[in-house]
Amino acid sequence: MKQNALQGVVPNETEDLNVEHLQLLLLIFHNFTEKGRRAILTLFVQIIQELSANMDAQARSVPLILARLLLIFDYLLHQYSKA
C-alpha cells in the first residue's frame, strides 16, 4: 500500500486491501504484547509521515490509500489506548 501511495497509483478491486486481510491484521494486533503494538503504531506513524512528505504523487489522484491507512491507524490507536 505504501509503495502504491508513493507512486500515486489508484488501486483497483484486485490489488486493494481486502477485508479478510484487514481482519487478520486487527486480530493479530490484539494478540501482540504492548511492545509489539507500540512497534506497529510506530511503523504506521513512519509510513504516514513519509507519505505526507510526498503528497505531490498523491495530489494527482484521490488519496484513497492514505485515507485507508489513516482509518486503520485511527482504529489501532484507539485500541492501543484501551489496553
From TrEMBL:
This is E3 ubiquitin-protein ligase UBR4-like protein. InterPro entries: E3_UBR4_N, UBR4-like. Residues 1-83 form the E3 ubiquitin-protein ligase UBR4 N-terminal domain. GO terms for biological process: ubiquitin-dependent protein catabolic process. One of its GO terms (molecular function) is ubiquitin-protein transferase activity. PANTHER family: E3 UBIQUITIN-PROTEIN LIGASE UBR4. One of its GO terms (cellular component) is nucleoplasm.
